[in-house]
Amino acid sequence: MSVTVRVPAKVNVQLAVGAARPDGFHDLANVFLAVGLYDEVTVTPSPGGLRVTCEGPDAAQVPLDRTNLAARAVETLAARYGRTPDVHVHIVKDIPVAGGMAGGSADGAGALLACDALWGTGATREELLEICAELGSDVPFSLVGGVALGTGRGERLTVLEAGGTFHWVFAMAGRGLSTPAVFREFDRLAEGRDIPEPVASRDLLDALAEGDAEALAATVSNDLQPAALSLFPELADTLAAGRAAGALTGLVSGSGPTTAFLTRDAGTAEKVAQALGASGTCRSVRVASGPVVGAMVL
Ligand SMILES: C[C@](O)(CO)[C@H](O)COP(=O)(O)OP(=O)(O)OC[C@H]1O[C@@H](n2ccc(N)nc2=O)[C@H](O)[C@@H]1O
Ligand SMILES: Nc1ncnc2c1ncn2[C@@H]1O[C@H](COP(=O)(O)OP(=O)(O)OP(=O)(O)O)[C@@H](O)[C@H]1O
């Protein structure tokens, strides 16, 4: 018997970052939107013990040891519910690795939900969300999907309304960026400046609720973007190419280096994708729309 869970990637339409906290994390106002790019996580009982395998274009960059977020999710759930974590976790990976689209978080949430179904733990949604928050700041959102505001370090979620579907183009970069390194660069660039409390933008929440792509494009923001650009200056060329190709706006997705372009409609997204692909400013290009639902047992 095996259980497969499908989990979406995310883009941050607003990422407001506060000052570094004593625990090293940053308080955020993090508006997540789940988009239709998915990893699939399958768990199967494995008498030989916990093991992880992965397939997909970026599979070589995915750790297959106990540091894999999916393995950590299995071990955490097993410890809580008195199980032995003897499963084979297989990841079919379509979300770019180290791209700022919460790929590892998706696999953590997927493995958690899959093992929960396999073992019939009876855990409540709140208990699962608590484990997600232990695993990483982005993991609760991978479980929930849709559109949500993350506060605290991004793990405390408030579900938001979206009045329509938004059409995106994602440009994958030639190399990854480390999330802690981008936050460190944010701190370095912020030195000597007063960092305001992070708050969600009212105009942005209204644009989401109305499903208004142009209004959303006018209000998206990412406080980590200057830090990502500082570590990866070539991303400025990708952003310029996407805007020149007809996107309403372009921004770095989360900690990057994936760049995200919001377009008026699905047809424009295809055109922007083609132009970006031909621009020579990125490794590959994908089209995806959202919001979509979070982790789901297939
Ligand atoms: C950049 C985002 O992807 C935006 O959604 C997230 O804030 C990062 O979420 P994540 O990858 O799940 O991050 P975690 O695994 O929780 O933390 C990794 C590292 O990122 C930094 N980090 C993360 C979240 C946060 N609110 N403040 C931080 O400073 C810390 O250095 C932390 O050690
Ligand atoms: N299941 C996993 N898939 C991919 N990377 C993983 C996984 N588990 C652990 N990792 C490690 O985490 C690092 C970050 O990978 P990930 O793809 O989650 O980045 P990200 O999408 O930028 O994350 P986020 O957007 O949440 O900051 C990788 O370089 C890898 O070493």
Describe the protein in words.
The active site is at residues 10, 138. With 298 residues, this protein is α+β, with helices and mostly antiparallel strands. It folds into 2 domains: 3-160, Ribosomal Protein S5, domain 2, CATH 3.30.230; 166-290, 2-Layer Sandwich (Alpha-Beta Plaits). The protein is built from 10 helices and 12 strands. The protein has helices at residues 69-80, 103-119, 125-135, 139-144, 179-190, 202-210, 213-219, 225-231, 235-244, 266-278, and strands at 3-20, 26-45, 51-55, 87-92, 147-151, 156-159, 166-172, 221-222, 249-252, 259-263, 284-290, 296-297. Strands 1, 2, 3, 4, 5, 6, 8 and 12 form an 8-stranded mixed sheet that branches. Strands 9-10-7-11 form a 4-stranded antiparallel sheet, sandwiched between helices. The longest helix is centred in the middle third of the chain and has 17 residues, at 103-119. The model has no long low-confidence stretch (mean pLDDT 97).
Can I get a quick summary?
By secondary structure, this protein is of the alpha+beta class. The protein is 35% helix and 29% strand. Helix 1 packs parallel to helix 2 (103-119) and helix 9 crosses helix 10 (266-278).
Notable traits:
EC 2.7.1.148; Alpha-Beta Plaits; eight-stranded mixed β-sheet; 10 helices; GHMP_kinase_N_dom; Ribosomal Protein S5, domain 2; globular; alpha+beta; 4-(cytidine 5'-diphospho)-2-C-methyl-D-erythritol kinase activity; binds adenosine-5'-triphosphate; binds 4-diphosphocytidyl-2-C-methyl-D-erythritol; 4-diphosphocytidyl-2-C-methyl-D-erythritol kinase; four-stranded antiparallel β-sheet; ATP-binding; 298 residues
